[in-house]
Amino acid sequence: MKKFYSNKVAICIFTLPTLILFTLFVVYPILPEILISLHKNDGFKSSAFVGLSNYIEVLKSPVFWKSNNNTLIIVAISTLIGIPISLLMALLIDIQTKWIKRFFKATIVFPAVLSVTVIAQMWVAIYEPQWGLLNRFLKYLGFANITMAWLSNEKTVLICVAVAFVWQYLGLNALLFYTGIKTIPKTYYEAALIDGAGFFKCSIKITIPLLQEMTKYVLFVSILGSMSQFAHVKIMTSGGPGDASRSVIYQLYYTAFSMSDFGQGSAIAVLFIIECLMITVIINKFVAREKLEF
Amino acid sequence: MTKFSKVFSLVLSMAMVISLSACGSGSNTEKGKSDVSKTEKVKIKFLSLSADDNRNKIRENYIKKNIAKEMPNVEVEYDLGGGGQDYYNKLKTYNASGDLPDVWFSEQNLSLVVLNSGNSLDLTQYVKKEGFDKKFTMKEVIAPWKDGKIYAVQSGADQYFTPRLFYHKDMFVKNNIKVPKTFDELLTACKELKSKGITPMSIVGKDGWAPNLFMLQTMMMIEDPNVALNLANNKTDFNNPVVKNAIGRIQKLVQVGAFDKGVTNVDYGPAVEQFTSNKTAMMAMFTWELPNLEKTCKDLDYMQWPSAKEGLDTSASIQYWGAPLSGYMVSKNTENPEVAAKFAMFCAKEDAVYFNTENKSPTAYNTGIKIDGMSELAQKNFNEFNASKLKVPSLWASVYDTKMSAEISTADGKLLTGQYSPADFIKNINSVWKNNGK
Question: Do residue B417 and residue A243 have CB atoms under 8 angstroms apart?
Fold first, then answer.
């Protein structure tokens, strides 16, 4: 059996169907997309070949750079706030009793399995200025002076959308971290216990370093997921007010479908692919380069 | 165990194969135009707006109910397209993928997208054959497009729709607030209402809806209606001082707190509900809502748009909705063009019947129905509409192309935050305006 699975032919046979589908539906469509990005295209016919003119227009557009910045802000919130919270949740779940552990393992993924529409509408209701939960809670605590129309204010709208997005996937990331924690041999913790290490020290010195592979995976998933943020933006604010909360993918959708400019929309898509590849290379290069072993 | 695994695998494989076979199209119809026998039903896919109460009633109570009687050989598949930007995007996606429904309801800026792609059917021969064009009192409504062809059929109800500033008479009286005659008085009235804890005005703010469809144009017309007409005829641009002032007026209304706090997220239904449940004292809306408002608001009235220029009578000019390419369109690739065209004309007629009977409002299409029992307010609106000396077409409905509509939606959305200056608005929109319609 081991000989069968280490056989290169066997590996090819098992991975070929997925590779074919991936190539057909993910890799191949990039080629016509690059072609469209070099033409003036209104969605149903390509007219003139314009070379790199679409790319230049996109790169000169302040709205594109604003949407790019918005995306990076969402990525930053997801990575710097979302991931640590998920890790903390996983660590706390691990030290609970059996039944509490089971309860949380089942329930923390509920937001992730719910439809994005449901989550987004829920958060729209929370942010509602007149009767929303957030403003009512702030008034109850005596902070009525900071209540506002969260989704209508250019300064707060992006953070509000990011919070909704990050909240939805906190539990899923926590579950991934928890899975990683379960793979760490108990002997390390037993040895640390003998030396008098508590929960905090064990987490810092043992759990987090040995979770690097899982952390790298969660980083990839989280960053790429945040980069391709669209649904929450569309449902909660339609990129508004104005263009204040547009992400790169929303800007792509707006350019292609609202402005009927598929040429520039494809150019945005190609630039987005390049950006994602660059981020992937950076993460690969600087995160968890060597497998850590005690 | 091995034998069991083999049997289990075989059963599982067979189950998967059988379930896959159900995914086949199994269609026996031929592609292209088909002969329809009297017993065979023709399937028509129909996309309609579904976020609008009037459109929903027309579809549910008129089209669905009467289709079997009028066109018994037709079976309709109803596709509900939502409203606003969502509807536009759905139709544009269908257009781009070559998967347009047979018949759909369209507005001018959207119709141009389909027209330019060559996907809309020329309805001229079918309109003439049915004598549909002879039933119109306003011939402009069924006039051909620039290329001499007719692409859309409509009831002509749209032409009579105009934006009004509805208000609760009782609220104004109770709070001792004078009905404003000038824009400055309107600002004062808004401040007074706000000080009494009442949101002054309800508008649909999502995607800049109200400024897009009428408010920006109204703010121009209260100073100089000829500027709006010149803009419609491409004789001026957004640098015009009257246009700049109009943008500034909307900004001022936002800054005095005339609208709901979260106005940029207020959709159609909630905006109307705010007014009908007395949460706001005024509502800026088209007269297509008048029948619905009269049912729930016993103290309903509308005021003339407050003037921004001394001596200007704002009732002397009126903004009207509708455009030559608004209405029901047919796909060029429909399998049954004659049946689809007939269905489109049937829908336009049902529109007219609805507006004449339930809404008690006139249409350019003559249904033969005498409009009795028009409410006092509806009669007042109708009389003022007919009496107005200058009728200006809606810029949104009949002038803006797709790009212009998209960009002005963004700009108007920003305007409703109160932090977007007229200068920035003009700088960003003028470059798009220069290429409008080209």
Answer: no
DSSP A118-175: HHHHHHHHHH-TTT-HHHHHHHHTT-GGG---TTT-TTTHHHHHHHHHHHHHHHHHHH
Which H/E stretch holds residue A54? helix A53-60
Parallel, antiparallel, or unpaired for β B390-393 and B280-286? unpaired
- Measure B65 CA to nearest chain A CA, in Å: 33
> What is the tens place of the pLDDT at every residue in A51-101?
999 999 999 999 999 999 999 999 999 999 999 999 999 999 998 999 999
Taking CB atoms and an 8 Å limit, are B262 and A243 in contact across chains? no
Token pair for B109: 């800026």
B129, B213: one domain: no
Tell me: do B312 and B172 sit in the same domain: yes
Domain count, chain B: 2
Give the span between the Cα atoms of A16 and A181, in whole angstroms.
32
The number of domains in chain A is 1
Tell how far CA A252 is from the center of its chain. Answer: 18
Contact B402 A129 (CB under 8 A): no
How confident is the model over B329-340, as pLDDT tens digits? 999 999 999 999
Smallest CA–CA distance, residue A275 to chain B, in Å, is: 26
Say whether B265 and A130 touch across the interface (CB within 8 A).
no
Considering only CB atoms, A260 lies closest to which of B206, B403, B411, namely: B403
Same domain, B144 and B291: no
Q: Strand B74-80 vs strand B42-48: parallel, antiparallel, or unpaired? A: parallel
What CATH number is attached to the domain comprising A180?
1.10.3720.10
Residue B263 contacts A, CB cutoff 8 Å: yes
Which two three-digit tokens encode residue B279? Answer: 């949460």
Residue ending a domain, choose from B352, B376, B400:
B376
The answer to whether the CB atoms of A242 and B417 lie below 8 A apart is yes
Give me A202's structure tokens.
């064990």
Domain that holds residue B99: 42-158+323-376
| A190 neighbors A99 (Cβ within 8 angstroms) | no
Q: Which of A43, A150, A242 sits opposite B410 (nearest CB)?
A: A242
Following DSSP, what letter does each residue of B353-413 receive, concatenated?
HHHHHTS----SB--S-------HHHHHHHHHHHH-SEEEE-HHHHT--HHHHHHHHHHHH
Instruction: Give the dihedral of Cα atoms B359, B362, B365, B366; nearest 10 deg.
Output: 100
Alpha carbon distances (Å) from A214 to A73, A179, B210: 23, 9, 50
Is residue B247 less than 8 Å (CB to CB) from chain A?
no
Q: Could you tell me the pTM of the whole model?
A: 0.80
Is ipTM over 0.85?
no
Q: Tell me whether residues B264 and A241 touch, CB distance under 8 A.
A: yes
Asked if pLDDT for residue B1 goes beyond 60, the answer is no
Task: Name chain A contacts of B93, Cβ cutoff 8 Å.
Answer: 257
What was the pLDDT predicted at A4?
56
Tell me if B413 and A242 make a contact (CB, 8 A cut-off).
yes
Q: How far is A236 from chain B (nearest CA, A)?
A: 8
CATH of the domain at B190: 3.40.190.10
Query: How far off is chain A from B150, nearest CA to CA, in Å?
Result: 22
